[in-house]
Protein backbone atom coordinates (compact mmCIF):
# COMPACT_ATOMS: atom_id res chain seq x y z
CA UNK A 1 0.00 0.00 0.00
CA UNK A 2 1.52 3.31 -1.09
CA UNK A 3 1.13 6.62 0.75
CA UNK A 4 -1.84 7.72 -1.33
CA UNK A 5 -3.70 4.46 -0.71
CA UNK A 6 -2.88 4.62 3.01
CA UNK A 7 -4.20 8.18 3.18
CA UNK A 8 -7.42 7.21 1.41
CA UNK A 9 -7.80 4.17 3.66
CA UNK A 10 -7.37 6.34 6.80
CA UNK A 11 -9.89 8.92 5.56
CA UNK A 12 -12.48 6.33 4.58
CA UNK A 13 -12.01 4.35 7.82
CA UNK A 14 -12.34 7.51 9.90
CA UNK A 15 -15.48 8.48 8.00
CA UNK A 16 -17.07 5.06 8.53
CA UNK A 17 -16.19 5.07 12.25
CA UNK A 18 -17.59 8.59 12.65
CA UNK A 19 -20.81 7.61 10.85
CA UNK A 20 -21.24 4.53 13.04
CA UNK A 21 -20.57 6.60 16.17
CA UNK A 22 -23.12 9.25 15.14
CA UNK A 23 -25.70 6.57 14.31
CA UNK A 24 -25.23 4.89 17.68
CA UNK A 25 -25.42 8.26 19.44
CA UNK A 26 -28.67 9.15 17.68
CA UNK A 27 -30.08 5.69 18.47
CA UNK A 28 -29.10 6.03 22.15
CA UNK A 29 -30.84 9.40 22.42
CA UNK A 30 -33.87 7.90 20.71
CA UNK A 31 -34.08 5.20 23.38
CA UNK A 32 -33.32 7.41 26.41
CA UNK A 33 -36.96 8.30 27.18
CA UNK A 34 -37.95 4.62 27.25
CA UNK A 35 -34.84 3.37 29.07
CA UNK A 36 -35.08 6.07 31.75
CA UNK A 37 -38.86 5.99 32.20
CA UNK A 38 -38.91 9.70 31.46
CA UNK A 39 -42.72 9.78 31.66
CA UNK A 40 -42.43 8.86 35.35
CA UNK A 41 -40.28 11.85 36.30
CA UNK A 42 -42.78 13.53 38.59
CA UNK A 43 -42.39 16.70 40.62
CA UNK A 44 -41.55 14.55 43.66
CA UNK A 45 -38.76 12.84 41.70
CA UNK A 46 -37.30 16.23 40.74
CA UNK A 47 -37.50 17.45 44.32
CA UNK A 48 -35.88 14.20 45.49
CA UNK A 49 -33.00 14.76 43.09
CA UNK A 50 -32.54 18.19 44.65
CA UNK A 51 -32.39 16.54 48.09
CA UNK A 52 -29.77 14.09 46.78
CA UNK A 53 -27.60 16.99 45.64
CA UNK A 54 -28.35 19.24 48.62
CA UNK A 55 -27.01 16.71 51.13
CA UNK A 56 -24.14 15.54 48.88
CA UNK A 57 -25.23 11.90 49.05
CA UNK A 58 -22.91 11.05 46.17
CA UNK A 59 -19.92 11.95 48.37
CA UNK A 60 -20.39 8.50 49.95
CA UNK A 61 -22.91 6.56 47.84
CA UNK A 62 -23.02 5.66 44.17
CA UNK A 63 -25.76 5.54 41.55
CA UNK A 64 -25.25 3.30 38.52
CA UNK A 65 -21.81 2.53 39.93
CA UNK A 66 -20.73 6.19 39.84
CA UNK A 67 -19.87 8.03 43.04
CA UNK A 68 -17.51 7.89 45.99
CA UNK A 69 -17.55 4.09 46.54
CA UNK A 70 -17.44 4.64 50.31
CA UNK A 71 -20.99 3.48 50.95
CA UNK A 72 -23.33 1.06 49.10
CA UNK A 73 -24.59 1.67 45.58
CA UNK A 74 -28.22 2.80 45.81
CA UNK A 75 -29.28 2.16 42.21
CA UNK A 76 -31.74 -0.59 43.16
CA UNK A 77 -32.19 0.17 46.85
CA UNK A 78 -35.98 0.69 46.69
CA UNK A 79 -36.35 -2.70 45.04
CA UNK A 80 -34.52 -4.29 47.97
CA UNK A 81 -35.87 -2.25 50.88
CA UNK A 82 -39.38 -0.92 51.37
CA UNK A 83 -40.42 2.66 52.04
CA UNK A 84 -40.91 1.96 55.76
CA UNK A 85 -37.30 0.79 56.18
CA UNK A 86 -35.83 3.64 54.15
CA UNK A 87 -37.91 6.22 56.00
CA UNK A 88 -36.83 4.88 59.39
CA UNK A 89 -33.18 4.73 58.33
CA UNK A 90 -33.11 8.28 56.97
CA UNK A 91 -34.80 9.65 60.06
CA UNK A 92 -32.17 8.24 62.40
CA UNK A 93 -29.47 5.93 60.96
CA UNK A 94 -27.89 5.49 64.39
CA UNK A 95 -30.80 3.23 65.41
CA UNK A 96 -29.46 0.60 63.03
CA UNK A 97 -26.06 0.27 64.71
CA UNK A 98 -24.30 1.29 67.91
CA UNK A 99 -22.26 4.47 67.38
CA UNK A 100 -20.50 3.93 70.71
CA UNK A 101 -18.93 0.73 69.38
CA UNK A 102 -18.95 0.97 65.61
CA UNK A 103 -18.39 4.72 65.00
CA UNK A 104 -20.70 6.83 62.87
CA UNK A 105 -21.40 4.90 59.68
CA UNK A 106 -24.07 7.24 58.31
CA UNK A 107 -24.60 10.82 59.48
CA UNK A 108 -27.99 11.94 60.70
CA UNK A 109 -28.95 14.59 58.16
CA UNK A 110 -32.10 15.81 59.95
CA UNK A 111 -34.14 15.51 56.76
CA UNK A 112 -37.74 16.66 56.92
CA UNK A 113 -40.56 14.20 56.26
CA UNK A 114 -41.14 15.76 52.83
CA UNK A 115 -37.44 15.55 51.96
CA UNK A 116 -37.36 11.87 52.90
CA UNK A 117 -40.49 11.15 50.88
CA UNK A 118 -39.15 12.99 47.83
CA UNK A 119 -35.72 11.36 48.09
CA UNK A 120 -37.35 7.91 48.18
CA UNK A 121 -39.39 8.89 45.09
CA UNK A 122 -36.18 9.86 43.31
CA UNK A 123 -34.43 6.62 44.29
CA UNK A 124 -37.49 4.64 43.23
CA UNK A 125 -37.37 6.27 39.79
CA UNK A 126 -33.64 5.50 39.59
CA UNK A 127 -34.32 1.84 40.46
CA UNK A 128 -36.65 1.52 37.44
CA UNK A 129 -34.15 2.88 34.92
CA UNK A 130 -33.01 0.15 32.53
CA UNK A 131 -29.33 0.14 33.50
CA UNK A 132 -28.75 -3.03 31.47
CA UNK A 133 -27.13 -4.83 34.38
CA UNK A 134 -24.75 -2.09 35.49
CA UNK A 135 -23.24 -2.18 38.03
CA UNK A 136 -22.82 -5.95 37.57
CA UNK A 137 -23.24 -6.66 41.29
CA UNK A 138 -24.32 -4.78 44.42
CA UNK A 139 -21.57 -2.70 46.01
CA UNK A 140 -21.76 -3.79 49.64
CA UNK A 141 -20.08 -2.40 52.72
CA UNK A 142 -19.09 -4.98 55.31
CA UNK A 143 -17.40 -4.85 58.68
CA UNK A 144 -15.68 -7.21 61.05
CA UNK A 145 -18.48 -7.07 63.60
CA UNK A 146 -22.25 -7.13 63.58
CA UNK A 147 -23.92 -3.72 64.14
CA UNK A 148 -25.43 -3.53 67.60
CA UNK A 149 -23.33 -6.35 69.03
CA UNK A 150 -19.90 -7.01 70.53
CA UNK A 151 -19.40 -10.14 68.43
CA UNK A 152 -17.74 -10.79 65.12
CA UNK A 153 -19.70 -12.72 62.52
CA UNK A 154 -17.62 -15.80 63.32
CA UNK A 155 -18.27 -15.53 67.05
CA UNK A 156 -21.96 -14.94 66.47
CA UNK A 157 -22.19 -18.03 64.30
CA UNK A 158 -20.86 -20.03 67.25
CA UNK A 159 -23.92 -19.08 69.30
CA UNK A 160 -26.14 -21.30 67.13
CA UNK A 161 -27.89 -23.88 69.22
CA UNK A 162 -27.32 -22.17 72.56
CA UNK A 163 -30.51 -22.17 74.69
CA UNK A 164 -32.06 -18.89 75.76
CA UNK A 165 -34.94 -18.10 78.06
CA UNK A 166 -37.98 -16.44 76.52
CA UNK A 167 -37.94 -12.69 76.92
CA UNK A 168 -34.18 -12.47 77.30
CA UNK A 169 -32.35 -9.97 75.12
CA UNK A 170 -30.59 -11.78 72.25
CA UNK A 171 -26.86 -12.39 72.92
CA UNK A 172 -24.70 -9.35 72.28
CA UNK A 173 -27.62 -7.04 71.48
CA UNK A 174 -28.07 -3.61 72.98
CA UNK A 175 -30.97 -3.27 75.43
CA UNK A 176 -34.09 -2.41 73.46
CA UNK A 177 -35.67 0.99 73.87
CA UNK A 178 -39.37 1.52 73.30
CA UNK A 179 -38.57 4.76 71.49
CA UNK A 180 -36.52 3.04 68.79
CA UNK A 181 -37.99 2.15 65.44
CA UNK A 182 -39.28 -1.46 65.29
CA UNK A 183 -37.60 -2.03 61.92
CA UNK A 184 -34.25 -0.96 63.34
CA UNK A 185 -34.80 -3.21 66.35
CA UNK A 186 -35.80 -6.04 64.03
CA UNK A 187 -32.60 -5.71 62.02
CA UNK A 188 -30.62 -5.92 65.26
CA UNK A 189 -32.49 -9.08 66.25
CA UNK A 190 -31.84 -10.52 62.77
CA UNK A 191 -28.12 -10.25 63.52
CA UNK A 192 -28.12 -11.18 67.19
CA UNK A 193 -30.84 -13.76 67.86
CA UNK A 194 -29.83 -17.27 68.82
CA UNK A 195 -29.40 -18.84 66.31
CA UNK A 196 -28.48 -15.68 64.40
CA UNK A 197 -30.61 -15.31 61.26
CA UNK A 198 -27.70 -13.90 59.25
CA UNK A 199 -25.65 -17.03 59.99
CA UNK A 200 -27.79 -18.83 57.40
CA UNK A 201 -29.53 -16.09 55.41
CA UNK A 202 -28.17 -13.27 53.28
CA UNK A 203 -30.12 -10.14 52.35
CA UNK A 204 -28.11 -9.65 49.13
CA UNK A 205 -29.94 -10.63 45.92
CA UNK A 206 -28.91 -14.03 44.60
CA UNK A 207 -26.65 -14.88 47.55
CA UNK A 208 -27.93 -18.17 48.96
CA UNK A 209 -26.20 -19.64 52.01
CA UNK A 210 -27.36 -22.47 54.25
CA UNK A 211 -30.76 -20.87 53.78
CA UNK A 212 -32.14 -18.89 50.83
CA UNK A 213 -31.47 -15.19 50.41
CA UNK A 214 -34.11 -13.00 52.04
CA UNK A 215 -33.76 -10.26 49.44
CA UNK A 216 -37.22 -9.66 48.01
CA UNK A 217 -38.86 -11.65 50.81
CA UNK A 218 -41.96 -9.45 51.09
CA UNK A 219 -42.60 -9.64 47.34
CA UNK A 220 -42.14 -13.41 47.26
CA UNK A 221 -44.41 -13.82 50.28
CA UNK A 222 -47.15 -11.85 48.55
CA UNK A 223 -46.87 -14.02 45.45
CA UNK A 224 -46.88 -17.21 47.52
CA UNK A 225 -50.05 -16.21 49.36
CA UNK A 226 -51.78 -15.51 46.05
CA UNK A 227 -50.48 -18.62 44.26
CA UNK A 228 -53.09 -21.07 45.49
CA UNK A 229 -50.31 -23.46 46.51
CA UNK A 230 -49.81 -21.98 49.97
CA UNK A 231 -50.44 -24.55 52.74
CA UNK A 232 -50.09 -22.46 55.88
CA UNK A 233 -52.54 -20.36 57.90
CA UNK A 234 -51.28 -16.81 57.30
CA UNK A 235 -53.59 -14.19 55.77
CA UNK A 236 -51.09 -11.46 54.91
CA UNK A 237 -47.40 -10.89 54.27
CA UNK A 238 -46.56 -10.12 57.91
CA UNK A 239 -48.42 -13.23 59.05
CA UNK A 240 -46.61 -15.36 56.48
CA UNK A 241 -43.21 -14.08 57.59
CA UNK A 242 -43.97 -14.60 61.27
CA UNK A 243 -45.26 -18.10 60.53
CA UNK A 244 -42.04 -18.84 58.61
CA UNK A 245 -40.05 -17.82 61.70
CA UNK A 246 -42.05 -19.69 64.33
CA UNK A 247 -43.33 -22.64 62.28
CA UNK A 248 -40.92 -23.02 59.35
CA UNK A 249 -42.46 -26.31 58.20
CA UNK A 250 -45.97 -24.86 57.87
CA UNK A 251 -45.33 -24.18 54.18
CA UNK A 252 -42.41 -25.59 52.21
CA UNK A 253 -41.53 -24.06 48.87
CA UNK A 254 -41.84 -26.80 46.22
CA UNK A 255 -38.49 -27.82 44.77
CA UNK A 256 -36.41 -25.90 47.30
CA UNK A 257 -33.47 -27.78 48.83
CA UNK A 258 -33.98 -26.44 52.34
CA UNK A 259 -36.16 -29.24 53.72
CA UNK A 260 -36.42 -33.00 53.76
CA UNK A 261 -39.34 -35.36 54.38
CA UNK A 262 -41.70 -32.43 54.88
CA UNK A 263 -39.57 -30.78 57.58
CA UNK A 264 -37.70 -27.50 57.14
CA UNK A 265 -34.01 -27.37 58.03
CA UNK A 266 -34.64 -24.03 59.77
CA UNK A 267 -34.72 -24.15 63.60
CA UNK A 268 -38.21 -24.09 65.10
CA UNK A 269 -37.09 -22.55 68.40
CA UNK A 270 -37.67 -18.85 67.74
CA UNK A 271 -41.21 -18.81 69.12
CA UNK A 272 -39.72 -19.58 72.56
CA UNK A 273 -36.37 -17.84 72.07
CA UNK A 274 -37.92 -14.46 71.25
CA UNK A 275 -40.65 -12.51 72.98
CA UNK A 276 -43.83 -11.61 71.04
CA UNK A 277 -42.54 -8.03 70.82
CA UNK A 278 -39.20 -9.19 69.39
CA UNK A 279 -41.01 -11.42 66.89
CA UNK A 280 -43.07 -8.42 65.77
CA UNK A 281 -39.90 -6.34 65.39
CA UNK A 282 -38.11 -9.06 63.41
CA UNK A 283 -41.19 -9.46 61.21
CA UNK A 284 -41.34 -5.70 60.60
CA UNK A 285 -37.73 -5.72 59.44
CA UNK A 286 -38.11 -8.75 57.17
CA UNK A 287 -41.32 -7.30 55.70
CA UNK A 288 -39.29 -4.27 54.61
CA UNK A 289 -37.16 -6.44 52.31
CA UNK A 290 -38.90 -5.98 48.98
From TrEMBL:
InterPro entries: Cyt_c-like_dom, Cyt_c-like_dom_sf, Cytochrome_c550/c551-like. Pfam families: Cytochrom_C. The keyword Iron applies. Keywords: Electron transport, Heme, Iron, Metal-binding, Transport. Residues 153-180 are annotated as: Disordered. The keyword Transmembrane helix does not apply. Residues 43-127, 181-290 form the Cytochrome c domain. Coiled coil: none annotated. This is Cytochrome c domain-containing protein. It comes from Noviherbaspirillum aridicola.
